[in-house]
Amino acid sequence: MIKKVYPSGAAGTHFLIGGVSKLKPVNIGGHAAYQNHVLEQLRKYYPDAIHSLPASTWEIMEKFWALDLSEVDSLLQDRYSDFGPTPRLPSDMLRSILLSVEFKVTSYTKWAADLKENHLHAILSGFTVGDTPGTGTFYDFQDRLWLSDDGNLSPKEHPPKEKPRKPDKKGEKAPPVEKLTVKDIFEKFEQAPPQDMKPCLFLFQLFKDLFLLKSHQDGLFDLFNLSIAGDGTPVYTAAQERKKRTCNCLEKGIRDCKCDRIYSQPDCNIGWDSHRECWYFGYDLYMLTASDSENDLPVFPVLGPASRHDSIGFLYNWYSMKQFLPQAKVTKLLLDSAHDSMPYYEYCLSHGIVPFIDLNIGRGRPPVYKDDFTINNDGVPVCPQGHVMRRDGTESAKGRTKFKCPRISFAGGKPSCTCEAPCSNAKYGRTVHLVMADNPRLFNDPPRSSKEWKLEYNARTSAERCNKREKLDYKLEDGRYRSSKMWYCRLFCIMMCQHLDAWDLPKTHRLKELFEQVA
Fold first, then answer.
1. What is the pLDDT of residue 372?
2. φ, ψ for residue 272 (rounded to 5)?
3. What pLDDT is attached to residue 20?
4. Fewest CB atoms less than 10 Å from the CB: which of 258, 265, 292, 314?
């Protein structure tokens, strides 16, 4: 015989089977129960809230009062044991963590103390005043979001990682330390995609189901016609690398041995910060952003070692995103010159993606094309007389772009070339067809010199603005964490808040109106 018992004030449902209590978190009232709870607690502890709380606080209250997280309770049921004390609702725990992100509190210890002192934060989280979770409860909830027994992605004991070489010129990024080329990694991941993000699968599912898909449904970006911008940014996690030796080489006078070390942050290493012109210890955060969204919305993150080059970081991110978000249809790819490598263009050409990648002049270009034409830095032909040719359309079926002589004049009613030594006797001057298959890196459609290309490429900075919001506005680097689990949980919650901030609030402040009706 199975009998349901609903304990007073409990967040879970007891199932009595043969006299043994089995417990799972169940949100009986759904989002409406949370809203009623907030309204009742506000009336009790903040009877003069209309006048005592500022408008900015009411905006946050309205935003979280309208945020429906009840789906989290059903998604997380299997992550709880059948036995034990009554669990707190997962939706309340996640909402509380999002509030800590909103109020720039990076420590669970400080946030747990804040909930006991600040009744408003406890009420908005969904807790009862005087009955708020402790620090350990937040860590326990975070463990349920991480699909691995280990808090890091790599073992703590491993050989020393190679430090990148300092770049020769100011402002340049450090050269790659990876032994494999971009082409090698493309081929490798086509056969066996990276599995680094597997522990984050549940975190991403919550982010996708509750935030990413809603932003898509609200028209903030189009998941099935997606324009993606990518960029990497340093994430400082500690002042220095912490490690212990596992050998006695130091006693023998050998200081730089290659023996294994035990690292407190095994997924981090030393990298070069090209913006601050210094070495740093931590991660390289590579973020893919919806560049066609007005709010620079994040789509997919990967935290790699600090020494990882952006051209490699993109590949780890791209192939991980394809596993986690297979329904996404990317049509445009916006990247900076660090990604200017032929395999990128060949991949885009074979997968129907239009690449908008800035040209790295240092990687060269063919000196001569069609025997007597040169190609400038924008991938546009220059005639033998030194004149940049004029684009005259694209023949998509043939995969080529047409360029005509720029010196044609119609004086006297007839077209004629105004050069002293015309390079063609044709009526409209010399015509050149750039076949994109000949060199997809240089020959783009649209060409880099066109207004269409420049207008589209300007949106690439959305990735930089997205990274800036996470690091500066939401204080990502202020967290003093030692595991990738903590960093990823914090990062995904920040991404959730970025989408939440982009959603339009109801035209009427419903919570305030209901509060005023009783008052």
1. 67
2. -110, 125
3. 40
4. 258
